[in-house]
Amino acid sequence: MSPSRVLLDTDPGIDDALAILLALAAPELDLAALTVTGGNCPLTDGLRNGLNVLALAGATHIPVAAGVALPLIRPPITAPETHGDRGLGYAILPASPVLPVAEHGVDLLIREIMAAPGDVTLVAIGPLTNVAMAIRKEPRITEAVRELIIMGGALLAEGNVTELAEFNFYVDPHAAHIVLHSGMPIILLPWDITQHIRLTQADVDRLLQVGGAIPQFIADATRFYIDFHLRHFGWAGCSINDPAALALAFQPDLARLQPIYVDVEITSPLTLGKSVADFQGKTGKPANVRAVVEFDQERFMALFLERMEALTHTAAQRILAEE
Ligand code: RIB
Ligand code: CA
């Protein structure tokens, strides 16, 4: 079976970086490009981080495009306390030899999706600004895209950035609103689920046994991220939200999905960014997403660690081949 073509819209960030590495460790996928938006860190840092993570894994051939830097309406919010001042925790990566492509991220999303109707899966693991702008610029992508997998929202769980809201929806609730009401075929992986998908120091130590630059990067990036989760939530591990979303592009049976109507608050300052799911069927509105309601986190974590170990070996070969 030929690999599935995937676009990754991202705000790299530590768990985003893990999702990029997992995409590179998935022969089931053909990672077409990264499109970057502001979020965990400003766009400029996210661009640098995306390029450098690809270079770390010997994947400088994958284009990285700058998308929209700021939310559609709200002032920008970043998360240095969670991802560090430069967006990758304590990790410092060698500078990639390549630059972002000249094409705007929104145009790249449109071009790639319209060039292969029904074939391209878009995985959105940051604020949805780029996806919303792409929908507004070329509404036909809502039918041409194979599927949109979103990491975002807090449906019944308390939020992670306010008591109510999850970060990606909170940073740009207006973009999330456009996307949720676009008619795109959406799989929504909410914080309700991903908060329980935790990478522990023991998992990192297992990767360090393999040796090499990728495990060292993961260790340096997640040491900051694990510390944050311990301080902020009291957890002995960090939520790796984004690789879990990416995994659904090639291991959909990790999740049990429920069609449901989901909306997001865009008016009240008190509840801005709160996602509301109609689990009780009170709105009478048709489902606009398939929400992940169960996720096999043990099987996913085993998959993630196995793939990171394998990537460490293949990346070394890739880098030698690129030299
Ligand atoms: O709420 C978690 C999400 O917000 C993740 O995608 C994380 O990287 C941040 O973007
Ligand atoms: Ca992210």
What does this structure look like?
There is one protein chain. The protein is an alpha/beta fold. It has a single domain (4-322), classed as Inosine-uridine Nucleoside N-ribohydrolase, Chain A (Alpha-Beta Complex), CATH 3.90.245.10. The two termini are 30 Å apart. α1 links the parallel β1 and β2. The protein is 41% helix and 17% strand. α1 (14-24) runs parallel beside α2 (43-56) and α5 (129-137) packs across α8. Residues 11, 13, 15-16, 39-40, 125-126, 151, 160, 166-168, 191, 241-242 line the site of alpha-D-ribofuranose.
Topology:
Blueprint: E1 4-10, H1 14-24, E2 29-36, H2 43-56, E3 64-66, H3 80-83, H4 105-115, E4 120-124, H5 129-137, H6 141-144, E5 147-151, H7 167-171, H8 173-180, E6 186-189, H9 191-194, E7 198-199, H10 201-210, H11 213-233, E8 238-239, H12 241-247, E9 255-260, E10 262-264, E11 275-277, E12 289-295, H13 297-322
Parallel strand pairs: 1-2, 1-4, 2-3, 4-5, 5-6, 6-12
Antiparallel strand pairs: 7-8, 9-12, 10-11
Helix pairs in contact: 1-2, 1-12, 4-5, 5-8, 10-11, 10-13
Bound molecules: alpha-D-ribofuranose and calcium ion.
